[in-house]
Amino acid sequence: MNIDDYIEKLEIQKEGFFYKCPYCNYTNADVKAIKKHIKSKHYDIIAKEVENLNKQNKPQRKPMKKQPKKKDDDYKDYMLLFAHKKKCKIYLDNGMIVEGTVKAKDRFNIMVLDAKVDDKEVERIIIQKGHIVALIPLEE
Rounded to two decimals, what is the model's pTM? Predict the structure, then answer.
C-alpha cells in the first residue's frame, strides 16, 4: 500500500460542519483539504504507518524443499544412450553435417572427437544439443 491509498482510506471525523485532522486540531469544511493537510504536515507519521502495514502484510516465504542431487547418468538423454562413444553423423539446424565419435559432455552439449565438418578435419567440436536436427549412428 502506498501513502496516497492510505490517506484515501483514513477515516476522517466530522465535527459539526467541519472535518478534523486525526493527528492535530486542524479543521476544514472540505475533506480534500484535510487530506492534503495530512499529506503535507504529517507525512512522516503516515510513512511510518504505511511501512508498518506493509511489513505486516508481506507474505512469508516457504522454505524450498531440497531436491536430491542427480547422478551424472541421469543427465544423459535418450539420444546419447545409443550414440555415446560411437561414430555418428550429426545434422545441425544451420545445415552443417558433422561426422565423428560422439562423447557425452554435459546435459546441454556433446563433444565430437576426430570430427569431419563439411569435409574439413577437426580434432574436436562441441555442439549444443538444441541445434541437433538428426543424429545417425554409423556403426552398431
Answer: 0.43
